[in-house]
Amino acid sequence: TSSVSRSNAASSICKHGGSGSINTAVTSASASSTQKSDPHRSVLLQCYVELKSSVNVEDHVLDYLYSNFVISKSLRDRIRSDCTTAESKAGMLLDELPSCGASAFREFVDALIASKTSVHQKLAKKLMNMVKNDQQSL
Question: What pTM value is reported for the model?
Fold first, then answer.
């Protein structure tokens, strides 16, 4: 039932999300299955701790994702109001991002690049290299 409620929540949170865009990997317990079916989600999970502690979503990232129709206004506002620390804001965004449509990962990387901070630039490069390496290994 949690995957059903996650699916319903995603459709109201993400502009391009919804149950149709949620990959079967979201409900899969197997890491290898996740990697094969959704390398972007796999990379986000592998880098979750580093991203959560290093990404400042208030530094352009939330507004970029909102203006590119990746996240809804309600999710953007909820992240800003419900989360009190930069780490919790990044965590909430990372938790929601996989259910925000096929382009969400690429838009997230683009948001990191567009923020023009050196930490975000390095993370964007790392994420893209990991996806590239994952795709080559398949």
Answer: 0.74
